[in-house]
């Protein structure tokens, strides 16, 4: 357990809950052993929402290298457990760190789209293969999350936790073709969860 992460989490939780009020649905499905926590990405605040609401022991999140360029910001993020990765490149050092986190029985937060969705819609972009590769290499279950809409100050939002996904049970052979198919499969499961959340929120608004 990261004492630093725990300290920061409880220090900032009241303010975050006030500014970004977020209702978690199916929180009981969240567990805190080895897993990849996989979430859609609509705003930079997504990390804060997931970390404050659902992460318990650390914030091992994969983030773009640009976030770490500032000396002090980079040091702070690394202290929390964040891992810098060069997008669009074979970042071997980042890959090693990610695999070490998972093989140590910890959790990794990753946004499979690879970047924020700036389309102005909630339609998820194409998934990168990294998420499925890491899951299949380390036999890690995936905990799918969906954030309902882009976080806005003082506006109610929703975050849903889905059933864990075991890719190795569906794609036992660790081939490139299976990894590609697993990536499509993961996106489909995330889309199903997104539809479930949309229906729940619509029903709540009708009451």
Index terms:
5-stranded mixed beta sheet, alpha/beta, 7 strands, 44% helix, globular, 207 residues, two-stranded parallel sheet, 14% strand
Give a verbal description of the structure.
- With 207 residues, the protein is α/β, with parallel strands linked by helices.
- Helices cover 44% and strands 14% of the residues.
- It is built from seven helices and seven strands; from the N terminus they run αββαβαβαβαββαα.
- The protein has helices at 3-19, 46-53, 71-80, 92-103, 130-138, 167-170, 176-206; strands at 22-25, 35-39, 62-64, 83-85, 107-110, 142-147, 157-161.
- Helix 1 (3-19) packs across helix 2 (46-53) and helix 5 (130-138) packs across helix 7.
Total helical segments: 7
Low-confidence stretches: none
Strand order of the largest sheet: 1-7-6-2-5
Helix content: 40-55%
Q: Describe the main β-sheet briefly.
A: 5 strands, mixed
Q: What's the order of the H and E elements? A: HEEHEHEHEHEEHH
What is the number of strand segments?
7
> How much of the residues is beta strand, in percent?
5-15%
The average pLDDT value, as a whole number, equals 92
General shape: globular
Helix/strand-derived category reads: alpha/beta
* N→C terminal distance: 41 Å
Radius of gyration: 16 Å
């Amino acid at each position: 357990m990261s004492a630093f992460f725990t300290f920061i989490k409880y220090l900032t939780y009241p303010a975050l809950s006030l500014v970004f009020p977020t209702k978690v649905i199916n929180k009981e499905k969240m567990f805190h052993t080895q897993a990849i926590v996989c979430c859609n990405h609509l705003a930079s605040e997504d990390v804060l929402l997931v970390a404050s609401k659902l992460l318990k022991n650390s914030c091992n999140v994969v983030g773009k290298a640009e976030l770490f360029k500032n000396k002090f910001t980079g040091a702070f993020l690394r202290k929390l457990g964040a891992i810098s990765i060069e997008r669009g490149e074979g970042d071997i050092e980042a890959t090693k760190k990610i695999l070490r986190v998972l093989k140590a029985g910890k959790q990794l937060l990753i946004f499979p789209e690879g970047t924020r969705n700036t389309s102005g819609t909630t339609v998820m972009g194409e998934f990168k293969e990294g998420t499925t590769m890491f899951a299949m290499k380390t036999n890690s279950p995936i905990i799918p999350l969906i954030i309902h809409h882009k976080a806005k100050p003082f506006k109610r939002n929703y975050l849903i936790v889905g059933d864990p996904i075991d890719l190795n049970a569906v794609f036992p052979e660790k081939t490139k073709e299976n990894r590609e198919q697993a990536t499509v499969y993961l996106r489909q499961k995330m889309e199903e969860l997104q539809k479930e959340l949309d229906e729940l929120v619509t029903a709540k608004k009708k009451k």
